[in-house]
Amino acid sequence: MTQGKERIIFCDFDGTITMSDNIVAVIRHFDPPGWRRIVDDVLAERKSIRQGVGELFRLLPSSKKDEMIDFAVNNAVIREGFAELLRFCRYEGIEFYVTSGGIDFFVYPILAKFDIPRDHIFCNGSDFSGERVEITWPHPCEPPCTNDCGMCKTTIMRRFPPGRYERIVIGDSVTDFEAAKMADAVFARSHLTEKCRALGVPYTPFETFYDVIDGLEERVMS
Ligand code: MG
Ligand code: ZN
Questions:
Q1: Distance from the CA of 149 to the center of ligand 2, in angstroms?
Q2: What order of strands is seen across the sheet that includes strand 134-136?
Q3: 189 alpha carbon – ligand 1 mean position (Å)
Q4: Considering the domain 6-221 in this protein, what is its CATH number?
């Protein structure tokens, strides 16, 4: 391992900490007309993530706020071993950050039962004051990222320079790939494993956070 560096984890939320994607679950559940076309446009890269997510939530009336929060919180299932991973990180002095493309109205309530400082959770914001839900973007891309990420994971990571930090990324999708390329170590599942394999980025596969703890233990001891 890299001697004398502070270990820091950047962990994705949707499909990583939670078993499935909460944005998709909320939109699917409330099923506003027109959402499938927007999702198709994002998947085909005709629209950026930021543009697509903004348009999806604009399909929903702000009056459904409480219903949306309740649905998201009750629907979300936390991946096994998450609390144990947080405990392990605290014990080993590993800083743990959540870097999420999700939205504050579900990210914070779902994580409320875990002891993660609020300033260690990065996600998008939401404004329910108008007729329709408006997503806000407090963490936009900064140069050199031009992907229009919405919540820009690489921008957050660049605040922790590689000379001082050993940067570890945990994620599940193509939206984690740019961060994975910058990382010293990657824990991947689902589409992120395929992308890493195709483009030659080393990774450790995981299904539960117990697998991540095992992988981290090896790094800590080496
Ligand atoms: Mg994800
Ligand atoms: Zn970006």
A1: 4
A2: 134-136, 121-127, 95-103, 6-11, 165-171, 185-188, 204-205
A3: 10
A4: 3.40.50.1000
- Listed by start position, the domains of the chain span 6-221
Tell me the pTM.
0.96
Gap from CA of 68 to ligand 1 centroid (Å): 19
User: Rounded to the nearest whole angstrom, what is the distance from the C-alpha of residue 178 to the centroid of ligand 2?
Assistant: 9
| Distance of alpha carbon 153 from alpha carbon 141, whole angstroms | 8
Ion ligand 1 contact residues with beta carbon within 5 A: 12, 14-15, 172-173
**Sign of the alpha-carbon dihedral angle for 141, 145, 146, 150:** negative
- One pLDDT digit (tens) per residue for the chain, 222 residues: 446 899 999 999 999 999 999 999 999 999 999 999 999 999 898 999 999 999 999 999 999 999 999 999 999 999 999 999 999 999 999 999 999 999 999 999 999 999 999 999 999 999 999 999 999 999 999 999 999 999 999 999 999 999 999 999 999 999 999 999 999 999 999 999 999 999 999 999 999 999 999 999 998 777
Alpha-carbon separation of residue 64 from 33, 38, 163, 164, 166 (angstroms): 15, 20, 46, 45, 42
Distance 60 CA to ligand 1 centre (A): 22
